[in-house]
Amino acid sequence: MVSMRWPFGQRGRAAAPEAKASRAGAVAAFSSVGRPRWTPNDYASLAREGYQRNAVAYRCVRMIAEAAASAPFAVFVDGARDDAHPLAKLIRRPNPEQSGAELMEALYGALQVSGNAYVEATGDADGDGAPDELWALRSDRVKVVPGRSGWPEAWDYCVDGRSVRIGRAADGWAPVMHLKLWHPLDDWYGLSPLEAAARGWTRTMRPGPGTRPCWTMRRGPAARWSMARATASG
Prior knowledge:
Number of helices: 6
Structural class: alpha+beta
Distance between the termini: 80 Å
Number of strands: 10
Strand content: 15-25%
Helix content: 25-40%
Largest sheet: 3 strands, antiparallel
């Protein structure tokens, strides 16, 4: 039987909400429990300098996101594929504005740029406990609110000084799914691949004394910036 709440959780279940087994979880959450934490990296700079203004990084992110989003999802019930299943329909058309591939491309792109991606499940018009729509949330607008157990207890979505808190339900079900890349020094946010590459491209893209930037084409589809020594004329 397919759970419509996976991976967000299951609503209305008789069992107790999932509990974090690690005793270290409560210690990790102690210093910031109940208080929203901003993502530690500068998302705007990463998006602008590392994605919008860097042709190679832009192409890399696009290729990864497009390739990953092209992988099809399927729902199987009792070993048989069921394209008419409500979950299959939700995956194909997660919301009125996007197809399934468009939603997944946005999520994979956000993972590559910020190291984090968020999906919000909304609606339950027929009362079956399953979401009607899935929406991607902008990573730079989401703040994780740590809980006492070591799991996030809520997520704050902030736009232009206004904020709305999206919290867990009483049974533990979370309407927000947070995807993140592993970060060795942060319990709540993922590490951006562009952040790791930023030092390298900053050094390469910023001319030093006596140098000038020049665009050097390489064989194949990729090109890169290189620094050429300036020569005095005359």
